[in-house]
Amino acid sequence: MSTTNLVRNKMRVLSATLMVLALSMGHFLFAQEPVYKWGEPCTNENLDRQIEKLLNLGDDGFAVLKSKTGTGLVKTYWIEQYDATLKLVETNRVDFAGGVMGDSYDITDIYVVNGKIYAFVEHWHKAYGHNTLLVRELTVDGSMTEIAELDIINAKKMMNRGKHEVSFSEDGTKMIVLSQLPGVKKTNENFRISCFEVEGMKRLWSHEKETTWPSK
Fold this sequence. Notes:
5-stranded antiparallel β-sheet; 1 helix
C-alpha cells in the first residue's frame, strides 16, 4: 500500500472516529437526567453467595440469580425476586443439580425473553465424550423445566470440550447458538452456528465452518 493510500485510510478512520464521538457527545448532552429509585433496606445475610446475573422481569420487577461454589466446584443457585418497588418478595433455591466429576452440569447463561426465563446448561459426560447444550425454563419459585437439547459437541476431554454462546433476535422470536468446537493440533479452528425458532426451540438450520486461523 502506498503512503498516500495509507494516509487516506487513516484520515477516513479519524473522520469516522470523530463522527462517532460527536454523536455520542450529542446524545450525552441532550439525554434526560437518570431517575433513581430507592427500596427499603435489605440485609444480605448470605455473604458467601455471589451475584451471577440481574434479570429484568418488566412490570413485575426484577430477579437476582446468586450462586455458591461448594466441594468439587459444584455450584448451588438461588433466585431472589424483587417487586416494582424494589422490595424483596422471596428467595428460592433453584432446582438444579451440578452433577459429579465426569458427569457435570453447568449453567452457562440465563436470558429473559418475552416474559420467560431461559437457562442454558452445558452437560459434559466423560463416558459418552459429549458436551451437550440444554435449555430449561426457570421460574422465580426456583423450579426448572427442560425444554430441549440444542447442540452436541464431541469432546473427550473436559479441558478441551468446546463451548456454546447464545444470542436472541431483537423481537425474541429467533435464537442463534454458536458452538466452538474442540481444538485439534495442526488444524484450523472450527465452529458450528445453528438457528432456532424460540417458540418450541425448533431448529431451522445449522452450518459448520472452518476458520483460517489455527486451533490452539
